[in-house]
Amino acid sequence: MSTEIILVDDGSTDNSLEVCRSYADSHPNIKVIHQDNRGLSAARNTGLANADGDYIFFLDSDDYLIENTLQVLAREIESHDADYVIGNFERVSETGALVSESHMPEAIKNRLLTEDDFWKYAEPDASYLLFVTVWGKLFKRKIWDTLRFPNVRFAEDEFILPSIVSQCSRIFVSDCVVYRQTISDSSLVRSSYSLDKLKVPESKLTVADYLIAKGNYSFALKKIDNAIADTCYAWQALGGRTAKESFTQIFRFSGDIIPKLSPHIAGKKRRKLFFFLHFPYLYMNLTQILYNLKNKR
């Protein structure tokens, strides 16, 4: 099996570029591309634009593969004629110590999923990470022919998830551990809250909108509930009124989505969504007050 490796140096400020070039000097299948820092989405898009292979695999910086990962996944994708293969993963510390294993449901191990199956098994919080991320998976190239990551610095995987899955009728799940995600205190997801992180609830609303169109109302409601909780947290973390204008996009998007779901949910849930939709700042402030009272702050 021949492998093309594309290393995208996204404006590193250490010696990463030199290290990449040293690998390329001794391995003809490695291609190094340097660009100004534009974030993970832009780096992945650059890799996609320069990829020539039949399959696509994403490896994030600091993470690493188990030996023979690509061979294992390629064998599965070919033998099952799958659109893409989901591999199992582990989370490790920066020293390599095991932090946690994925929560892959027993019912899906080593079997093909339809798109409906995918959303069914992705719904539980414990297993969602396995499904939502693009790393740890081998894709047929055709999925990415016209598909690119959005220009965001957070939640890019969730934003693009419906566009991936909607193209697929055969998704194979392998229980082989193929990927190790490194948990670092300096990673983007663990960084302090910033306006860029407001894309997180927006990404969940994007998935909810797709699920509503599919008639999966329970999962759509769950994603909207999560998006509202994230929005309330952001309101508190960003200092309330100082960032008020930054929430406009979320409220506008919610206003497009919630009315589509409301006829399909129970009255109590419907009233909660109505309250958030029409009185979002009051909703967020009351949520903050209740949280502070509960935690005696």
Description:
- This protein is an alpha+beta fold and 297 residues long.
- The chain folds into 2 domains: 54-188, Spore Coat Polysaccharide Biosynthesis Protein SpsA, Chain A (Alpha-Beta Complex); 192-294, no CATH class.
- The protein has 11 helices and 9 strands.
- The strands form 2 sheets. Strands 3, 4, 5, 6, 7, 8 and 9 form a 7-stranded mixed sheet that branches.
- Helix 6 (156-165) runs parallel beside helix 7, helix 7 (199-213) packs antiparallel against helix 8 (217-237) and helix 7 (199-213) runs parallel beside helix 9.
- The model has no long low-confidence stretch (mean pLDDT 93).
Largest sheet: 7 strands, mixed
**How many E strands?**
9
The overall average pLDDT, rounded, is 93
Helix run count: 11
CATH classification, class level of the largest domain? Alpha Beta
Rg (CA only): 21 Å
The percentage of residues in β strands lies in 15-25%
**Low-pLDDT residue spans:** none
List the helices and strands and how they pair.
Layout: E1 5-10, H1 16-26, E2 30-35, H2 40-49, E3 55-57, E4 64-65, H3 69-79, E5 84-92, E6 98-101, E7 111-113, H4 115-122, H5 125-132, E8 137-140, H6 156-165, E9 171-182, H7 199-213, H8 217-237, H9 248-261, H10 267-278, H11 280-294
